[in-house]
Amino acid sequence: xxxxxxxxxxxxxxxxxxxxxxxxxxxxxxxxxxxxxxxxxxxxxxxxxxxxxxxxxxxxxxxxxxxxxxxxxxxxxxxxxxxxxxxxxxxxxxxxxxxxxxxxxxxxxxxxxxxxxxxxxxxxxxxxxxxxxxxxxxxxxxxxxxxxxxxxxxxxxxxxxxxxxxxxxxxxxxxxxxxxxxxxxxxxxxxxxxxxxxxxxxxxxxxxxxxxxxxxxxxxxxxxxxxxxxxxxxxxxxxxxxxxxxxxxxxxxxxxxxxxxxxxxxxxxxxxxxxxxxxxxxxxxxxxxxxxxxxx
Length: 296
Description:
single chain; mainly alpha; MetI-like fold; about 70% helix
């Protein structure tokens, strides 16, 4: 992705309705928004939508476990190897994806944006130290690091969120820093210094609004990174055992040697991951056009 030129004009404040309306600027953005809203509704209404508890084992009339039943009226997406309803797992897996992506993205955006702002504004030793830390974060391969850290901390949704947040802020920090280096030399920033504005006021009231569209772009992309990261960890067996996730569903299908034979078990979570990431990408493209007039 090319570096974005700040779109925000000095003295103009971005408002929430304007920010939220950005994805509605094109047909693809609207499609992405609709898909994402449907996922959010499914997560919020999971107990009402799901037919059973996702961990409940279903039994047939003869008392045997309803193992690997293909889709039918009593089980719209069939059952898994353990006799659990796949539709219920899929719905509750949506809740896990939303929780992980939302909290992880907020953490990585707050950390990355502040590192980029402080590093570029102060320069000198602060810039060198913060950028060396960022370089170190880039040097660490995410998946091996995440597997080791989650294994040491014990698999849980909060440890997964912590692990994702530990490294994924690095791209945000780099791109925000590059923009602030240019913005801090502008006339309105120099005028604020002459007027006696404090560093904190200049950073957060004068510089930050100019990089906000770019920060929002990385918020959107961060959501897809978080979902893919959680799905990868869960597929490898490091998901939260107390919560259902799409990656965990694929892991159980693989572990039971049903990943090829029971298509109704593997296709739905794989399709949900694909649709979720695609929706976020479509929304992200609209924020990229908003943040970078050159690609409009």
